[in-house]
Each structure stands twice: as C-alpha cells, then as structure tokens.
Recover the amino acids of this structure.
C-alpha cells in the first residue's frame, strides 16, 4: 500500500512513516521494476562495485592482500601498505577526514551515496530485488502471489527465491570475511575440518543469517530506521543541497491528462508512477523526506511519463530546493567553503604523515634516571633504550653504529630482531674513551642499519664527567 498523496504545502506526511500503517503494522513495499537511463547507469556502477567485492580479495602484493580490514587483530592493509596500532594517529586523522568528506559531499549532493554506492541499497535493489522480479514478476504479480493460497507453484517459487537469497547471502558473507581475515585464511576455513575453525565458521554463519534476514525481510527498514547516516540528513541538508526533488513549480496543480483537453493544470499528470517505483514507498511530490535514498528510480519513471505526454523531462530531477523555487543554479555556500577548507587541511596533514611514514620506525632514549657509569680502561658508558616498530611484512634484523664519535656500541641481550608488523624493545650501552669527551654533554649520531643498508640516523646525547 502506498501513502496517500498530500498537498505539496502540507507537512502532515512527516507525522507518519511510509512503511508503517496507522495501526503500527509494517506496510510491505512492492516497488514497480524501474527502467530508464539512471537505472542503466546504476547497473554499471553496481557492476564495478560487485567486481570490487568479488575480485579485490584475490589481489595480492608481495603475497599479501591488497586490502585487509582485520579489526580483531588491529591489522589493516590499504593498497598493499600495512597499518597497525602504531599508526593510530594516521587512522584517527583519516577517519576525521573521511567524516568531513561525507559531510561535505552530503551538504552538496544530498544522499546520492545511499542510492548508488551503499552496499545495502546496491545489493537490495540491484541484486536481490532483480532476482525477486525474475522469479515472482513485477510488483502487481508479487502482491497477487503473496495474497494467493499456498499452492505447489507458490511454494516452489518461494522456495526457489529464498534458496537463492540464502546462497547469495552465504557468498557475500564469505567475501566480506575475506576482507577481514584474507582469502587464504578464508580458504582454510572452507577446506579444513570444521572443528579447526569454530570461530570462523560461527562468523561466517552469523554474517550469512544477518544478510539473509536483511535482504529477505528487513529491507528498506535498514535505511529508514537504523542507518545513522540517514538520520544525519536532517542536519546536513539545506535549501541549497542537491537532492532528488519534484519540481512543484512546474508540476502543480497536478491533474490527470485528458484527451483533446487544453491543459490548464501543471505538468504532473498524477499517474503515481514515481510513487509506484519507490523502494521506500514514499511520494517524492511531498518534498524531501528522510526515507528518500536518492535512488533516482522516480526520475526514470517520471521522465518516461513526460516522454509519453510530450512534455519536457525533468519534472522530478536532481536539484536544490532553492533551484526549484527561484530557478537558480547550484550555489557554493559559506558552509561548503568552510568544510572544503577543513578537508583540504586534513588531507594535507594526512598526506604529510603518509609521505613521512617509515617502514621501520626506531626511537632511542637514554635510560631514565641514569647519568653515566665509569668503566675499566678509562672509559665512560651511557645506557639507552631502543624501541623498534617494524611496519613491513618481512622480519628485520637491525644493527646500530656510532656515526660521529669513536666508541663502542653494545646491544644488551639478544640481537635487534623484529618480526614483521611487530614492536620490539632493547637496551644498549655506548662506551667512549674519557679522552674523546670534550664536554659533559656530547651529541651522538647513531646510524640504523638493516643488513648493510643504512635506513635511518638518530640523534641523542652522551653524558660524561667534567673534562679536565
Ligand atoms: S523518492 Fe525517488 S529517489 Fe527517493 S527513494 Fe523514492 S524512488 Fe528513490
Ligand atoms: S511520475 Fe511524474 S507525472 Fe506521474 S505522478 Fe509522478 S511526478 Fe506526476
């Protein structure tokens, strides 16, 4: 059932939800199958996104995943570069930049991300819904089938549809898991005896059931009632934001078209096709609504009607409220400029941090609370702590050398070995002949070597007694 069409100046439609009846029951949405140029373009975008989902886990760089989002072990790989807990500050700035980007994008383009890129809408409308149309037919046939008694034909159709939904949910959950644990570990879960990967199997099954539940039953409620991004629209959108909008100036007063009549009404022929195709069950002619995911299905439907009635396309279009009311073009507002400046600064900081990020990060500090020690042979020693972060996929074996003074550098205990993606700490002594110390505080330069290759140079100081 679709909502009653309200007058465009009425706000009462905001008091209720398109998918909930007056009695508080869910109204199942049966959107009519869309067709048109925007739907075709969405098909291409969907193909690219699905290719990303199904191909990326197989791409490897140096035998490691191209992308990995292992939240459990706090290990992330982006474009073949590994990031771990030691990159927390980069992660925080990247997240802030991403949030500002989303805000800026939404302020300008509204909720177009939801309709075109969000996995929920893409999978629901462009994959699961298409399967539903294929098996059960268009909206009217689906309604009729649901209302019909349980015959063998109905049971078979439902069984076939939900079996495909389940298998697809299973495949999607596997690939999602591949982004978290990597395709090799996923393959182990699939091929090893189940008892060896109980946790993995539970995750796989939980994701499958969750996706199945969402795409078979929960559907548009995820966008309308749960998605936090959807909730943010109210504060992010303004009169200059581009949204899917009905041109009420041109369309009203709406009225059916009659043969041979001289039309005095607006261009909307009140065919309700825009309402019929809407996957969230709203009437866009009421104005911008929280439920609208900017899928553009109503644009295609209305353009089709305009073509048939020999009226110009664009009665429903991508436009701002001001653009429709005042016929003005897109305006760059102070808000847009402000967010853009913040975003440019954040991207600048992020780029700087990434450009200066070292594969192996070493820091050296003199042991706290200690000055210097007298050693046999007229030598003075200082004790240092060294902290090494290996951000690569390979184990590293480092050595340290004094670069600017003659002396001895002795690692205490084990060699400086750091496993891939791990942090290691050690202590070392620097011993210098008293005769070589000209001040109480001698600057020291220590070279860091990986095999024989110098990878870094660090400065510290060496404390000694007052020279004679
Ligand atoms: S109103 Fe139009 S753009 Fe918005 S969800 Fe419905 S069909 Fe999609
Ligand atoms: S599809 Fe276009 S003409 Fe038909 S009701 Fe919607 S806005 Fe009016």
């Amino acid at each position: 059932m679709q909502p009653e069409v309200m007058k465009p100046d009425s706000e009462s439609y905001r008091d209720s939800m398109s998918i909930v009846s007056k009695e508080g029951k869910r109204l199942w949405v049966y959107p009519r199958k869309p067709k048109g140029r925007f739907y075709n373009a969405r098909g291409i975008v969907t193909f690219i996104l699905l290719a990303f989902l199904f191909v990326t886990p197989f791409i490897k760089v140096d035998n490691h995943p191209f992308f990995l989002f292992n939240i459990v072990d706090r290990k992330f790989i982006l474009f073949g570069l590994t990031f771990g807990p030691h990159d927390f500050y980069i992660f925080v700035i990247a997240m802030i930049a991403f949030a500002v980007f989303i805000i800026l994008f939404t302020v300008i383009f509204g909720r177009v991300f939801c309709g075109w890129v969000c996995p929920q809408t893409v999978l629901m409308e462009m994959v699961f819904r298409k399967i539903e149309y294929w098996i059960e037919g268009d909206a009217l046939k689906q309604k009729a089938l649901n209302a019909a008694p349980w015959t063998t034909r109905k049971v078979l159709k439902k069984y076939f549809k939900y079996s495909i939904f389940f298998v697809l949910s299973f495949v999607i959950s596997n690939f999602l898991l591949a982004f978290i644990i990597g395709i090799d570990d996923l393959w182990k879960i699939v091929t090893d005896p189940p008892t060896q990967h109980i946790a993995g199997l539970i995750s796989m099954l939980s994701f499958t059931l969750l996706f199945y539940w969402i795409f078979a039953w929960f559907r548009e409620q995820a966008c309308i009632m749960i998605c936090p991004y959807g909730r943010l629209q109210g504060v992010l959108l303004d009169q200059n934001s581009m949204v899917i909008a009905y041109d009420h100036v041109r369309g009203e007063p709406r009225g059916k078209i009659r043969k041979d009549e001289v039309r005095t009404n607006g261009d909307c022929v009140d065919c309700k096709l825009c309402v019929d195709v809407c996957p969230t069950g709203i009437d866009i002619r009421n104005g911008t609504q929280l439920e609208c995911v900017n899928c553009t299905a109503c644009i295609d439907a209305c353009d089709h009607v305009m073509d048939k009635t020999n009226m110009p396309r664009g009665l429903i279009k991508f436009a701002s409220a001001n653009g429709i009311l005042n016929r003005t073009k897109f305006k760059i507002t102070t808000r847009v400029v402000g967010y853009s400046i913040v975003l440019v600064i954040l991207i600048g900081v992020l780029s700087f941090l990434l450009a200066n990020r070292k594969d192996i990060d070493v820091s050296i500090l003199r042991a706290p609370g200690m000055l210097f020690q007298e050693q046999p042979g007229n030598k003075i020693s200082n004790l240092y702590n060294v902290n090494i972060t290996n951000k690569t996929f390979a184990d590293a074996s480092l050595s340290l050398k004094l670069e600017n003074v003659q002396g001895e550098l002795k690692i205490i205990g084990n060699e400086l070995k750091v496993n891939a993606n791990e942090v290691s700490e050690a202590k070392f002594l620097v011993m210098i002949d008293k005769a070589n110390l000209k001040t109480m505080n001698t600057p020291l330069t220590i070279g860091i070597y990986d095999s024989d290759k110098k990878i870094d140079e660090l400065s510290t100081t060496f404390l000694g007694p007052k020279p004679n």
Summary: Residues 360-463 form a domain with the Immunoglobulin-like fold (CATH 2.60.40.10).
